[in-house]
């Protein structure tokens, strides 16, 4: 293990992923993977050296994320050679994909690292696949392009007899994280925070009718259905957008929101969309977790026409684009939405349409042909995810639905519904939302079990007590003491809710850490949900109680 050089604050995105890693059993959902097939003469030892040069250039690739006291921090380590195992595979491309799936399924250890792993799969002489796998805390979609460009640039120099050293970067990812902190502490983000607080006030959760009972702990495994929105239909709807200025993404989002509204029977809903988060030119050449999620709140009324919905979507997107800098994690802390274990706060549906100009670019290696290898990513961090790409004049991609909530047939119906909605709206942009052919709503009537799968109390219900009521039992007494210490309050009543008292996700982690010092094991997933002292005490497993009872004297 290399020397640890320095410790810096984690970005808001890194903090959020660290918290999620503490509660989720499958960390592969946060894995960023890219595979490139290389046809031609490849020298593995030089490719490994090129990878080492790239890791030397980007500090974030030799960073780990851990809790230090009350803060999540990133620790940058000294450069060291990057291993590149060469693995022979049989079965051609199919066999290589299967082996790549096995390799990228290994979990990451955020505290110990490394958070980058590379492999060279050898299909035969002059035929290799370079697989790179990074944890999302140090990478995002655009980072994959930066990574590949730097690898190919360094490798080409090494092949020609150079040292492969890349120019020093003017900034590192840690500088961006510090800038985020400064933006918040200076008050520069307050106008944007006020915008989102007003826009999202009173937001109801999206309740999509499910096929399966919600599990106690989600797997995030997904069922997948392909999506393709045809060029002539998109062009017709772009021409129909009121006031002009529409994009293929806005058309797709309008169709998506119409399907979600009809399926859920809700007129008020949110779809999260990604923003690159690289507003400054110096950030474009960096690897790191910059992408931010913007929660677009939409009103989809049955009587409005699709043309009106298009205009509404365009206006909401433009307003969101003007307020892009508030980290989603900060919004969650400020807005304090209802918290449910296994469900992302604020948002249950997500959509991305990647423009053609920012799609994956591979760089060049003289004498070697490079082409991307599609890897299946059957994970859904939200209930429903539309991951699409502008491909020429067509928008195509995949729809991912959580397999512990939906069947493959239902996700296929949603995909077909998108196609039918776009076709019908292109034929008549003035068609009412209520008149659109939404198959998943028309062919799947709601059942009595279609309530919100997480619309339940996260911990045992209790009879409310008046604030300041004296707690009974050593467990409640210890919890009150811990909350007072962490939240900086002189007293806490057993019926007061943690987040209403000013708690945050990180302060919840501090309570867990402090509890362990007193011999009390608090489940972090429960602690991250809404709860009072008494509810939390009642939700603890029996094995946690004797340790608390043994400390009666310490907290009385």
From TrEMBL:
InterPro entries attached to this UniProt entry: ACP-like_sf, CAT-like_dom_sf, Condensation_dom, PP-bd_ACP
Cofactor(s) this protein requires: pantetheine 4'-phosphate
Signal peptide: none
Pfam annotation, one family: PP-binding
Segments crossing the lipid bilayer: none
Entry superkingdom: Bacteria
Domain Carrier positions: 470-544
Official protein name in the record: Carrier domain-containing protein
Organism: Winogradskya humida
Organism ancestry: Bacteria, Bacillati, Actinomycetota, Actinomycetes, Micromonosporales
């Amino acid at each position: 293990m290399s020397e640890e050089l320095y410790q810096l604050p984690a970005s808001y995105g890194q903090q959020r992923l660290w918290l999620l890693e503490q509660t989720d059993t499958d960390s592969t959902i946060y894995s960023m993977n890219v595979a490139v097939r290389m046809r031609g003469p490849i020298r593995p030892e030089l490719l490994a050296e090129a990878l080492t040069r790239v890791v030397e250039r980007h500090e974030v690739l030799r960073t780990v994320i851990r809790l230090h006291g009350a803060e999540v921090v990133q620790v940058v380590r000294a450069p060291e050679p990057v291993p590149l195992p060469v693995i022979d595979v049989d079965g051609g491309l199919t066999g290589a994909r299967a082996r790549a799936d096995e390799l990228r399924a290994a979990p990451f250890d955020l505290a110990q690292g490394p958070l980058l792993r590379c492999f060279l799969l050898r299909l035969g002489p002059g035929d290799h696949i370079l697989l790179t796998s990074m944890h999302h805390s140090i990478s995002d979609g655009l980072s994959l392009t930066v990574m590949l460009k730097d690898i190919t640039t360094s490798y080409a120099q090494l092949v020609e007899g150079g040292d492969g050293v890349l120019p020093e970067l003017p900034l590192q990812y840690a500088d961006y994280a510090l800038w985020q902190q400064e933006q918040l502490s200076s008050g520069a983000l307050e106008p944007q925070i006020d915008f989102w607080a007003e826009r999202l006030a009173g937001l109801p959760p999206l309740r999509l009718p499910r096929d399966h009972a919600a599990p106690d702990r989600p797997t995030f495994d997904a069922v997948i259905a392909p999506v393709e929105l045809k060029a002539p239909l998109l062009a017709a709807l772009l021409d129909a957008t009121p006031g002009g200025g529409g994009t293929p993404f806005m058309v797709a989002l309008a169709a998506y929101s119409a399907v979600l509204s009809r399926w859920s029977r809700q007129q008020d809903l949110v779809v999260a969309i990604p923003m690159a988060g690289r507003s400054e030119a110096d950030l474009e050449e960096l690897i790191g977790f910059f992408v931010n999620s913007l929660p677009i709140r939409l009103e989809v009324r049955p009587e409005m026409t699709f043309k009106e919905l298009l205009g509404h979507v365009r206006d909401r997107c433009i307003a969101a684009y003007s307020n892009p800098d508030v980290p989603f994690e900060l919004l969650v802390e400020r807005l304090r939405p209802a918290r449910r274990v296994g469900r992302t706060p604020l948002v249950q549906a997500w959509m991305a349409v990647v423009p053609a100009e920012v799609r994956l670019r591979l760089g060049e290696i003289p004498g070697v042909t490079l082409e991307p290898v599609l890897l299946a990513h059957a994970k859904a961090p939200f209930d429903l995810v539309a991951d699409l790409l502008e491909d020429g004049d067509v928008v195509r991609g995949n729809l991912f639905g959580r397999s512990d909530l939906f069947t493959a047939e239902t996700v296929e119906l949603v995909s077909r519904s998108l196609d039918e909605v776009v076709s019908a709206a292109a034929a008549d942009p003035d068609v009412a939302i209520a008149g659109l052919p939404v198959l998943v709503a028309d062919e799947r009537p709601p059942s009595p079990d279609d309530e919100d799968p997480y619309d339940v109390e996260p911990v045992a219900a209790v009879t409310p007590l008046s604030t300041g009521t004296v707690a009974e039992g050593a467990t409640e007494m210890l919890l009150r003491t811990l909350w007072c210490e962490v939240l900086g309050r002189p007293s806490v009543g057993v019926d007061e809710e943690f987040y209403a008292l000013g708690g945050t996700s990180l302060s919840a982690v501090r309570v867990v850490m402090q509890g362990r010092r007193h011999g009390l094991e608090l489940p972090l997933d429960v602690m991250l949900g809404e709860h009072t002292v008494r509810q939390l005490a009642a939700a603890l497993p029996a094995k946690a109680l004797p340790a608390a009872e043994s400390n009666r004297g310490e907290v009385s």
